[in-house]
């Protein structure tokens, strides 16, 4: 079960980075080109949000498995690799999902297209950078 969850979490991460990159670039381009916010833009933002929430759920379940909880035993803050997996990665991913959710929610409340793109651009870019900063790259690639 643990290996299946770990594979799903790792595999879904590739999809997440791709989808979130596309949604973020779309929002930034939409903001700077001052185009109208359409169904495609809404769908890209929503898909980015959904994929990220699914990844968070898989991650939380994986985090709470007995095999993963065993990592806490003998954990020392000086070990940067273990600290990344136990504390930094989960905390920053929760923050990233919160940023995405706030940005998506704020963009829906805006009436003008430029305001929608602005909210998505700011929050999706911040979330994307947070995600990239705390990925366990040595294990992921």
Radius of gyration from CA coordinates: 17 Å
How far is the N terminus from the C terminus? 22 Å
Helix run count: 6
The largest sheet, given as strand count, sense and whether it forms a barrel, is:
none
Low-pLDDT runs: none
Q: Whole-number average pLDDT? A: 91
Q: What class would the helix/strand composition place it in?
A: mainly alpha
Elements, N to C (H/E): HHHHHH
Question: What global shape is seen?
Answer: elongated
Describe the structure in your own words.
The protein has 141 residues and is an all-alpha fold. It contains six helices and no strands. The protein has helices at residues 2-33, 39-63, 66-69, 80-109, 113-133, 137-140. The longest helix has 32 residues, at 2-33. It is elongated, with a radius of gyration of 17 Å. The two termini are 22 Å apart. The mean pLDDT is 91.
Q: What structural keywords apply?
A:
0% strand; 82% helix
